[in-house]
Design brief:
Layout: H1 4-18, E1 23-28, H2 41-45, E2 50-56, E3 59-64, E4 68-73, E5 79-83, E6 105-111, E7 116-120, E8 127-132, H3 133-136, H4 156-163, H5 170-175, H6 185-194, H7 208-239, E9 242-243, E10 270-274, E11 277-281
Antiparallel strand pairs: 1-6, 2-3, 3-4, 4-8, 5-7, 5-9, 6-7, 10-11
Helix pairs in contact: 1-7, 4-7, 6-7
The chain binds a DNA duplex (16 and 16 nucleotides) through helix 6.
Length: 292
DNA sequence: CGATACACCTGTGTGC
DNA sequence: TGCACACAGGTGTATC
């Protein structure tokens, strides 16, 4: 689930709980996620104070005093759950200092405040690492990542340059994190629909008009999704401390067979396969130029 | 370089 | 109810 807006929502939800806090006991219940956690993972976190939380693409960055960065990727199914003292208490229970860990609770970080941050990830495609601030830019996972879509280095010119001379479909170019950081399967379809561009359009057939439309669409879609996440944050934290899932209404994603939500359009949303993954589009307003 | 397959995992929904 | 299968928001590697 987590693409850039969801990770940003997690960041915003965790920030007030983590910032300024000293980290206490770190419990790793399963070391092997997508990669093996480093052997010194716990040692490098325990006793350290959290400076601030950042995000790079789909990576959550927790910067610690002393110069290390705790890095998390949520993969497909990862979540961060905030447990305060009262969380997971059943009615009638008075005190439960250490509630039993859930089925896929892989990493549990206790804070000085008594709150606990639980990383839960059924599919275990997530990962964590700790690196020094200096090594962060050269980290193999971040090194080749493209610009932040909401920053000012992500421009139509940049996108167009990534497309020039390539036969590869525009959607696959968008999913490549080297093009732009943080776009996943949902927001790729959503942004292309907004920009009225067919997901199969070859990169070489992009032009500056399409690139400008797509850059704008990506920004709009991501910003709206972040707002939706922000508005649901309060509710989720009240409910169960569960960060990372929120309801956002999509225009085309997972809506095949439904009418295109564009007022003036009478098309019906289709699902196609690209690179083993589903894409959703309206064949009328996203028609391929010259295509069927 | 590109397209494709597959690998890593569990959970859920569907059809028989 | 059981079982097989398809599919799911990500990404890294291998192979043609």
């Amino acid at each position: 689930m987590p693409e850039l807006p969801e990770v940003e929502t997690v960041r915003r939800g965790l920030a007030p709980v983590l910032e300024g806090q000293r980290i206490g006991k770190v419990t790793v219940r399963r070391r092997k996620l997508r990669r093996e956690l480093p052997g010194d993972f716990e040692v490098r976190l325990e006793g350290r104070r959290v400076r601030c939380l950042d995000r790079r693409g789909k990576y959550l960055l927790v910067r610690l005093e002393g110069g290390d960065v705790w890095l998390t990727h949520l993969g497909m199914s990862g979540r961060m759950v905030i447990e305060t003292g009262a969380a997971r208490l059943k009615p009638g229970e008075f005190h439960h200092p250490s509630p039993a860990a859930g089925r896929h609770d892989h990493v549990i970080v206790r804070l000085e405040s008594g709150a606990r941050i639980v990383f839960n990830d059924p599919r275990r495609f997530g990962l964590m690492d700790v690196v020094s601030e200096e090594a962060l830019e050269d980290h193999p996972l971040l090194r080749d990542m493209g610009p932040e879509p909401l920053g000012n280095t992500f421009s139509p010119a940049h996108l167009l340059a990534r497309c020039q001379g390539r036969r590869r479909a525009i959607k696959e170019i968008l999913l490549d994190q080297k093009t732009v950081a943080g776009i996943g399967n949902i927001y790729a379809s959503e942004a292309l629909w907004r920009a009225r561009i067919h997901p199969m359009l070859p990169g070489a057939r992009m032009d500056s008009g399409k690139a400008a439309a797509l850059v704008g669409a990506i920004r709009d879609v991501l910003e709206e999704a972040i707002s939706a996440g922000g508005s649901s944050l309060r509710d989720y934290r009240k409910a169960d401390g569960n960060l990372g899932y929120f309801q956002h209404v999509f225009s085309v994603y997972d809506r095949d067979g439904e009418p295109c939500p564009r007022h003036e359009c009478s098309g019906k949303i289709e699902r196609i396969r690209q690179g083993g993954r589903s894409s959703f589009l309206c064949p009328l307003c996203q028609a391929l130029p010259g295509g069927p």
